[in-house]
Amino acid sequence: QFLYFIEFCHKKMLSFSAAMLAVAAAAPPNVLFVVIDDLGFDDMGYRALAPEIKTPTGDYYAKNGVILDQYYVQPSCSPTRTTILSGRYPLHTGINNALPRGDAYGLAPNETTMADMLKQGGYKTHAIGKWHAGMYSYRLTPTFRGFDSFVGFYNGGEDYYTHTAGGYDMRNDSTPQCGKGCSHVLKEANGTYSTILFSQEAVRVVEAHDTTDPFFLYLAYQAVHAPIEAPDSYVKPYEKLGGKRAIYAGMLACMDEGLGNVTRAMEAKGMMDNTIFIFTADNGGPTETCAPQGSSNWPLRGSKCSIWEGGTRGSSFIWLGPKVPAKLNTIGGNYTNLMHAADWMPTISEAVGVDCKTCLAWDGVSQWKALTSTAPPPRDHIYYGITDAQVGVHGPAMRVGCKKLILGDGGKPGGWHPPATMNEVEEVFFDFVDVGLQNGPLPSNPNNTMLLFDICVDPDEHNPLNHTTENLKIIKEINSRIVEMWNTGTPGCPNAACEGHAPAGCKDGTPTEIDGVLVWEPWCE
Fold first, then answer.
1. Rounded to the nearest 10 degrees, how much is the dihedral formed by the CA atoms of 289, 495, 111, 220?
2. Would you call 422 helix, strand, or coil by DSSP?
3. Torsion of CA 427, 98, 254, 243, to 10 degrees
């Protein structure tokens, strides 16, 4: 009987151990979501045709993950960030343009964010870096949008060292719903290069994390947005590039080094093995408009703020740790299905097994099955929307399969800008053709002109297709889909009817003087 008892206990212990291992194996994966600001299509080593800048961290994870080859973002900062955070197009959030400092609007409070969704699944959620999704009230700032903590700046751009743009903007919001009386102006960060500051904060957050809880880090670097600033030690290796490109290279190299520090910290905590790592640009590089800083979109056409491919086709990859239950099906290769920044919300929802109970209708679709199996492509089109108003209102545009239709213009000047080590190419511009379609509710464009490209054959948009009978049929079909999509839209901000606009009586804001220093503070509380 004693031996029987021992055997019985041994079997129970084995059963308990197996159950514990099963629970551990089923632990929800961590999510590391990294956004790089104004990254050019040709800048990261894994993506560049002739790599000039050393980015070993990004290159390692891209080459051991999957490069998203046909991945699209919006033409500028705020539209892409709010799309990522909500899973919804600017057409439906009202955020069509980069949010100017002091404007009284942002991502509407009724929008459920990615952080809100993951908190519903028990995640600890942290945001670091650039916000740029609204700040007229604290309720639009990160810790009121599902994040447990935030260190960073609310606006869209500033000096990397002094953290000023009209006023000082660097915060430490250390708890959920950290508003007036809690939000700390991080004056002690003055003089610290923001890329280093954000990398150090990310490492600190990782080291402080209790690994019994799943972890979500939204790390939105200021790099590599203008102004063009980097510590000399990072610029020196690239002096041969000269001018803006050399400083830009230093900015990007510093970011990549910091990202490596973050991933090593996660490895040291045993977290990286069960992590979904997503890396994305927020728009194309500003090669010709919207604060050029030395980036390259070569060989794509156009710049940040445009709806040419150079403004909207984003540099991105996804990597899965070995303990994430699913496996990518083309490790070390390219994922060639169409994908949009709006797809991250439903993709992450499916990947981690958290249903969003409060989300408004997503425009994105889950790419998870197609990324991790032989499932068919989940989307057949890309809706580019319109240009950022900084270059005028052009478009909208849509790609269906290989064919891309632009209503009017993709945004001037719309050239091809090679890296500094290559000779400038001739910029060939062409006539727009009136195809006799009426605009209806769409933004007006000159003489109802339209451009049709075959992106699979001509990804750099050099050769618009002739208006043959067959192509006119394609134009009319895609135009019909554009009109149908446009008719679902909501008023765009800063129109007072925009969902994210401040309540009546809240006007545009200016910095507040605090202890003799002008500081950006939410001004409508």
1. 20
2. coil
3. 40
Q: How many CA atoms are closer than 13 Å to the CA of 160, on its beta-carbon side?
A: 22
Query: Residue 61: phi, psi to the nearest 5?
Result: -75, -30
Beta bridge mates, 125: 216
Residue 211, judged by CB atoms within 10 A of its CB (0-12, 13-18, 19+), counts as: middle
Strand-pair partners of 149: 126
Residues 53/43, Cβ–Cβ less than 8 Å: yes
- Cα separation, 431 vs 208, whole angstroms: 59
Joined together, the tokens standing for residue 150 give: 């935030």
In angstroms, the CA 437 to CA 487 distance is 16
Q: Residue 224: is the preceding peptide bond cis (ω within 30°)?
A: yes
Is 178 an active-site residue?
no
Our answer to whether residue 77 is catalytic in this structure is: yes
Side-chain half-sphere exposure of 156, counting CA atoms within 13 A? 21
What single string gives the DSSP state of each residue in 296-307?
--TTS---TTSS
The two beta strands, 124-130 and 149-153, are: parallel
- Residue from 92, 126, 132, 225 carrying the catalytic annotation: 132
DSSP state of 32: E
The DSSP-derived string for 361-400 is PPS----HHHHHSSPPPS-SEEEEE---GGG-----EEEE
Q: Which letter does DSSP use for residue 158 in this model?
A: -
Q: What pLDDT digit, counting tens, does each position of 252-261 carry?
A: 999 999 999 9
Beta bridge partners of 216: 31, 125
Residues 298-350 pLDDT 10s = 999 999 999 999 999 999 999 999 999 999 998 999 999 999 999 999 999 99
Query: Would you report the helix, strand and coil content of the chain in percent, each value rounded to 5?
Result: 30, 15, 55
